[in-house]
């Protein structure tokens, strides 16, 4: 408050210092009382102008003009109390200087006076009074979405305080609070203090952000739909697949955040979206085939469910090429692996399915025994090798499956051969052992199918398909025994092979046996007829000699020679005509004892006919075994004896070669066995010789 002379001025409020609070300054009339005395020697009263203000309990007195005051010549009265010393006045209080004092307590002063005491009688030279002021107003406003309370125009006691509460509506949040257009942030309460003037307060609001949650088929997200979230707050979502399904992806604002079952939005200040998708957990039912070679490359079909969208198939950890047929089927090709069980894994959006697959080492072929068999099959064979699998091994011969397979170990099995293909064919055939590990190498031409043709009558031989070689046994017709004579010789025996260059067919001649000698002419047995295959000829056996009066005691030469009778008789020579190896043997010598005649045995394929003794006729020579069928052919017949008067015995035919027995006494000799080339037995003293057996041709094509 500024005071000049005795006139009353009013003090103005002024903010002093850097304090933000607004001090209450009440202007009061300042009265300067100047006593004007009429006496001419009156003492001068100083003229002082002051500005007094109060901020809370602090009093500020500024010397604003007029005379300077000397310390001790004036008092500072606050509420009528002398508080001069509290203001620490200087020696001279001059214009522009401010005196300050803070009163204790909370009650501001009601009056401040400057009293001049330098003239004898105290004189008030400056005075300020402070009293209550009228109320102030605060005007409020709020945007849509919330409220401010109290609302409207609010009257506040001068120097008092007022608190306002800011509240957003449901689904809204506070965006700002402004006091006298100055932002104070998104606060929920604001208080005006020491109100000495009018003010404004406003609040703005905005809609809370929302999160749009959605879930695909076969699962849920909670909460679902449009979810309002308090601005700056958090929101948790729980993703749950249905039974049998997995979470495949969770997308937040279109970007993947994995496949977790929960997701939390924090400090939400904008709208978002969250979407979950689900897929069937893949399951495995079967794989076919269940095993394959370690080299891989085996096409397999995997069945199950949940395969749609599969991203990988592995066997034993190694990737396989694959194609998804549909949700329940996948075709794959196995990679290489190690022998034994291996896990395979199908990876799909819903997870993975695991099964087992067996890698099997490739079998090998070591050998087959026997290595040959008839084209009709049904031959039991033993196959050696490696990596045979019990219950899972097959064998083919020439492409046809063998039967009765029995795996005794990983290195040995037995099987029954199938018939050759085409039926009746001959030749080398491939043997293949097959397991899940693949086909065995090395069995090329390992088994030889053969066709055996046996000819007992003359007819052409047709060479079987596939045959490249032929083994033959050609036996000529056996000779007849002589009347009262020696045994007939066996038919010639020819064995051998023709390799390569076979014709499509060959003529076959089967030699007939010679007739037994009778009591006519020379009495000799008739020689057998040659059997012929291709250029191979086996001569017929030579007939036996005869002791008939006027007859010929000599044996006849042939494949095997006929036996002689009488000591003077000449044996028939075998291997006539000569072949290499020999096709037969000589007949045996006869014997004469006391006018009794004993015939020699006919020659056989293996040995010569037996010589007659003094009382015993010679036995027929043994036959020869045909390696094609292990049958012995071509045994000569024995000579006859004259038991009635000589007491002799007849010779025995070679039963292992089809030779007939010699006659005893007056009996006839026994005929040689048909289709053996066996010679007939010589007759007894009045008996005819036995007829020779027919020949035979046996061929083995392979």
Brief digest:
By secondary structure, this protein is an all-beta fold.
Explained architecture:
The chain has 702 residues and is mostly beta strands. Helices cover 1% and strands 42% of the residues. Strands 38, 44, 47, 49, 50 and 59 form a six-stranded mixed β-sheet that branches. A five-stranded mixed β-sheet has the order 14-12-19-16-17, with no helix packed on it. A five-stranded mixed β-sheet has the order 22-20-27-24-25, with no helix packed on it. A hairpin with a 4-residue loop joins strand 57 and strand 58. The chain starts with 8 loop residues before the first strand and ends with a strand.
Distinctive features:
1 helix; 6-stranded mixed sheet; mainly beta; single chain; 702 residues; 1% helix
Indicate the overall shape.
rod-shaped
Average predicted confidence as pLDDT: 89
Structural class: mainly beta
Q: Give the count of helical stretches.
A: 1
Biggest β-sheet description: 6 strands, mixed
**How many strand segments?**
59
Low-confidence stretches: 1-41, 643-647
First-last Cα distance: 148 Å
- Return Rg in Å: 71 Å
Beta content comes to 35-45%
Estimated helix fraction: under 10%
Produce the secondary structure layout.
Elements: E1 9-10, E2 29-30, E3 48-55, E4 58-66, E5 69-70, E6 74-78, E7 81-82, E8 92-93, E9 98-102, E10 111-116, E11 123-129, E12 136-142, E13 146-149, E14 153-156, E15 160-168, E16 172-179, E17 182-183, E18 189-195, E19 199-207, E20 210-215, E21 219-222, E22 225-228, E23 235-241, E24 245-252, E25 255-256, E26 262-265, E27 272-280, E28 283-288, E29 291-293, E30 299-305, E31 312-315, E32 318-319, E33 321-326, E34 329-333, E35 340-348, E36 351-360, E37 364-369, E38 372-374, E39 380-386, E40 394-397, E41 400-401, E42 403-409, E43 412-416, E44 427-429, E45 431-435, E46 438-439, E47 447-455, E48 461-462, E49 469-475, E50 493-499, E51 505-506, E52 508-509, E53 531-533, E54 536-538, E55 591-593, E56 596-598, E57 624-626, E58 631-633, H1 643-646, E59 696-701
Parallel strand pairs: 12-19, 20-27, 29-36, 38-47
Antiparallel strand pairs: 1-2, 3-4, 4-9, 5-8, 6-7, 6-10, 10-11, 12-14, 13-15, 15-18, 16-17, 16-19, 20-22, 21-23, 23-26, 24-25, 24-27, 28-30, 30-34, 31-32, 31-35, 33-34, 35-36, 37-39, 39-43, 40-41, 40-45, 42-43, 44-47, 45-46, 47-59, 48-51, 49-50, 49-59, 52-53, 53-54, 55-56, 57-58
């Amino acid at each position: 408050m500024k005071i000049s002379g005795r006139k009353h001025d009013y003090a103005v409020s002024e903010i002093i210092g850097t304090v933000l609070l607004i001090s209450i300054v009440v202007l009061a009339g300042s009265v300067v009382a100047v006593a004007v005395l009429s006496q001419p020697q009156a003492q001068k009263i100083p003229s002082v102008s002051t500005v007094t203000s109060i901020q809370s309990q602090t009093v500020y007195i500024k010397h604003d003009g007029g005379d300077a005051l000397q310390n001790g010549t004036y008092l500072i009265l606050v509420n009528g109390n002398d508080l001069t010393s509290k203001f620490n006045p200087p020696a001279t209080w001059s214009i522009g200087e401010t005196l300050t004092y803070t009163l204790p307590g909370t009650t501001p002063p009601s009056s401040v006076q400057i009293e001049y005491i330098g003239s004898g009688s105290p004189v008030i030279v400056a005075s300020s009074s402070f009293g209550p002021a009228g109320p102030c107003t605060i005007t409020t406003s709020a945007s849509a979405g919330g409220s401010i309370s109290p609302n409207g125009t609010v009257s506040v006691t001068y120097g008092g305080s007022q608190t306002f509460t800011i509240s957003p509506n449901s689904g809204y949040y506070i965006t700002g609070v402004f006091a006298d257009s100055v932002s104070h942030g998104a606060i929920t309460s604001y208080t005006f203090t020491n109100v000495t003037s009018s003010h404004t307060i406003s609040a703005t609001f905005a809609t809370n952000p929302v999160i749009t949650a959605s879930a695909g088929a076969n699962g849920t997200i909670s909460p679902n739909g449009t979810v309002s979230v308090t601005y700056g707050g958090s929101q948790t979502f729980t993703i749950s697949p249905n039974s049998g399904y997995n979470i495949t992806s969770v997308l937040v604002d279109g970007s993947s955040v994995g496949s977790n079952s929960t997701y939390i939005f924090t400090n939400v200040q904008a709208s978002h979206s969250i979407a979950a998708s689900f897929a069937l957990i893949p399951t495995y039912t079967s794989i076919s085939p269940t095993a394959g070679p370690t080299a891989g490359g085996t096409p397999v079909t995997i069945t199950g469910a949940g395969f749609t969208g599969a991203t990988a198939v592995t066997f034993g950890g190694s990737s396989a090429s694959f194609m998804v047929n549909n949700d329940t089927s996948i075709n794959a090709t196995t990679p290489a692996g190690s022998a034994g069980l291996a896990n395979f894994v199908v990876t799909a959006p819903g997870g993975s399915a695991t099964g087992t697959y067996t890698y099997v080492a490739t079998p090998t072929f070591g050998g087959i025994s026997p290595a040959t068999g008839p084209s009709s099959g049904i031959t039991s064979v033993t196959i050696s090798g490696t990596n045979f699998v019990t219950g899972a091994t097959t064998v083919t011969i020439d492409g046809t499956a063998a039967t009765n397979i029995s795996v005794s170990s990983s290195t040995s099995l037995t099987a029954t051969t199938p018939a050759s293909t085409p039926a009746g064919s001959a030749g080398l055939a491939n043997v293949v052992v097959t397991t899940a590990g693949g086909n065995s190498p090395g069995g090329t031409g390992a088994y030889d199918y053969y066709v055996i043709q046996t000819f007992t009558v003359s007819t052409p031989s047709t060479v079987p398909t596939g045959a490249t070689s032929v083994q033959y046994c050609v036996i000529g017709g056996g000779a007849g025994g002589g009347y009262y004579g020696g045994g007939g010789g066996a038919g010639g025996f020819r064995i051998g092979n023709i390799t390569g260059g076979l014709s499509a067919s060959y003529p076959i001649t089967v030699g007939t046996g010679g007739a037994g000698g009778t009591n006519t002419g020379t009495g000799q047995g008739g020689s057998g007829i040659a059997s012929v295959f291709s250029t191979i000829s086996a001569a017929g056996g030579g007939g036996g000699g005869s002791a008939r009066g006027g007859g010929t005691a000599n044996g006849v030469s042939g494949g095997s020679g006929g036996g002689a009778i009488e000591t003077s008789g000449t044996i028939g020579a075998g291997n006539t005509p000569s072949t290499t190896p020999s096709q037969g043997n000589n007949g045996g010598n006869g014997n004469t004892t006391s006018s009794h005649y004993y015939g020699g045995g006919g020659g056989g394929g293996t040995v010569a006919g037996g010589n007659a003794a003094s009382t015993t006729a010679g036995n027929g020579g043994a036959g020869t075994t045909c390696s094609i069928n292990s049958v012995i052919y071509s045994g000569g017949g024995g000579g006859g004896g004259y038991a009635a008067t000589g007491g002799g015995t007849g010779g025995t035919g070679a039963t292992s070669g089809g030779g007939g027995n010699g006659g005893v006494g007056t009996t006839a000799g026994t005929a040689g066995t048909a289709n053996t080339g066996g010679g007939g037995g010589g007759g007894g003293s009045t008996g005819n010789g036995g007829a020779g057996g027919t020949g035979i041709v046996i061929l083995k094509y392979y």
